[in-house]
Amino acid sequence: MTVPERRTRPRRYGRRFDLRATAVFFGLAAVGLIVVGWVGRMAVDVAQRRPLWAVVLVLGGVVAGVACRRGRFGFSPSRLARRTTGALEEATATALDALEEQRSAMPADEAPGVEDSTAVADVGHEALSPDEFEQAIAGLCVRDGCAEVEVVGGAGDLGADVVAVAPDGRRVVIQCKRYGDDNKVGSQDLQRFGGTCFTVHEADVAVLVTSSDFTAPAVEYAQQCGIVCVNEARLRDWSEGLGPAPWVPTPLVEDGTDSSGQAVQ
């Protein structure tokens, strides 16, 4: 007796589910979405702050798209590079011209990158706040070639508002007194400064600058201790370039003062 052979259907093996591959795929997709969102946000920010550069990037993208489209009929890397470079150079030149026009049309007091180091020469000293007065004195030090200029005034400064290194290497310690015309610097101010400028701050040149003037006892004390006194008149000459900086030695006259009437050692 013959038993008929049963035909078996071939099994179809489906693709097995791979949890690791699926997790990696969704992870990469999430990273891609984050990158796309970040790039889009940066592009919007650049377009708002630097519209000219946005135009440059758009032109570059258009050139690249046109080049890729023409590449179907014959792609030439050298020709694409020349065209892209030319387009970028033209766009950059246009952007720079526009920026130059904006800068030339901007008022001088609003021009970027200009430090307010000439504030003492432009406005009256009495119009400055104490902090602005210190900054202005530091600006004069920088203008006249000092290095390591630093404003250190504040609580616990022990009498030093501005410290610097003169062009000849000496350490300059300056105390700033932004007083009104009716308030002169007295001997007590000089004594407090004289007690710290040399021993604590190790000054080679100690200077007290004021927007007013000094009393006679203060001038006498400064002469004894070797502190350079710069009153409003001498400060105005210094800021306008009509007089020497406080650390520059000045010739003495018979009464022991310099040509501006300030006591020196």
UniProtKB/TrEMBL annotation:
**Regions crossing the membrane:** 21-40, 52-69
Which keywords does UniProt give here? Endonuclease, Hydrolase, Membrane, Nuclease, Transmembrane, Transmembrane helix
InterPro entries to which the protein is assigned, alphabetical: Restrct_endonuc-II-like, Restrct_endonuc_IV_Mrr, tRNA_endonuc-like_dom_sf, Type_IV_Methyl-Rstrct_Enzyme
Statement: the UniProt record of this protein carries the keyword Transmembrane helix: yes
Stretches assigned to the Restriction endonuclease type IV Mrr domain = 127-238
The domain of life is: Bacteria
Q: Where is this region: Disordered?
A: 246-265
Q: Which GO terms describe its molecular function?
A: endonuclease activity
Designated name of the protein: Restriction endonuclease
